[in-house]
Amino acid sequence: MSKKFEGKVALVTGAGAGMGLATAQAFARAGASVVLADINEESVAKAARALTEEGAKALAVRCDVASETDVEAMMARTVDAFGRLDCAFNNAGVISQHQDTADLPDAEWDRVMSINLRGTWYCMKHELKQMLSQGSGAIVNASSIGGLNGVAGLPAYIASKHGIIGLTKSAALECATKGIRINAVCPGVIETPMLDWLTGGDATVKAELVKAQPIGRLGKPEEIAAAVLWLCSSDASLVLGHALSVDGGYSAQ
């Protein structure tokens, strides 16, 4: 992918750590000017500084994707800084601790949906306004293998990730003849801070997760980044409305 994105502008949400950070770094190293957005301003500021020191063009933006005002401001700063938007990875999201559907509080349902599903919609809404004005662009939304399968005890998370796939397909059809491609990526179990939080860093739990992976290991953030860059590249010019599993064979079982 060396310098394949020279002259392009890429936006990544949830870019402070994990898959978002790895994807922002991959875009920058492939030649793109990159906007790193995250609710944790300190983390993206640090990441943007590191990329700038490597010679990349990088802008850090604090954004809570559950706030449309924040998302509008993020897009305004992107266009003010770089003039356009060519690629977007809508990656910001949260997960909740296991809780049965009947016991899930309203507030937790609303929290997960507001960030994962409504936040993805807000980002797409404002990214598309810019891309439609240009007549070009590529968007990848972060779903999950949980968007393709059910998992007991994660009702809000699973519903939100299924919803992202539906949103992706609908928008992709709307934009199919307008020069804009929209897809989703469905990561499997990836070694990220979110996984550490979910497992409590318990090595025994992680070992059990590894046993469930046909490939015999957990995924790496850089492997998701590679998939996102491919979906955003001209190599994927005929791919739209697709939910791409990147899960080491888990969903093939």
Taking pLDDT < 50 over at least 5 consecutive residues as the criterion, the unreliable ranges are none
Strand count: 7
Structural class comes to alpha/beta
- Rounded average pLDDT: 95
What is the share of helical residues?
40-55%
The H-level CATH homologous superfamily, spelled out, is: NAD(P)-binding Rossmann-like Domain
Global morphology: globular
Under the CATH scheme, which architecture would be assigned? Answer: 3-Layer(aba) Sandwich
Structure explained in plain terms:
With 253 residues, this protein is an alpha/beta fold. The chain has one domain (9-190, 221-245): NAD(P)-binding Rossmann-like Domain (Rossmann fold), CATH 3.40.50.720. It is 47% helix and 15% strand. Strands 3-2-1-4-5-6-7 form a seven-stranded parallel beta sheet, with helices on both faces. The radius of gyration is 17 Å and the shape is globular. The two termini are 30 Å apart. The mean pLDDT is 95. InterPro entries: NAD(P)-bd_dom_sf, SDR_fam. Belongs to the short-chain dehydrogenases/reductases (SDR) family. It holds the Pfam family adh_short_C2.
Short description:
By secondary structure, this protein is an alpha/beta fold. It contains eight helices and seven strands. It is 47% helix and 15% strand.
Main attributes of the structure:
Rossmann fold; SDR_fam; 15% strand; 8 helices; 253 residues; seven-stranded parallel β-sheet; single chain; alpha/beta; NAD(P)-bd_dom_sf; oxidoreductase
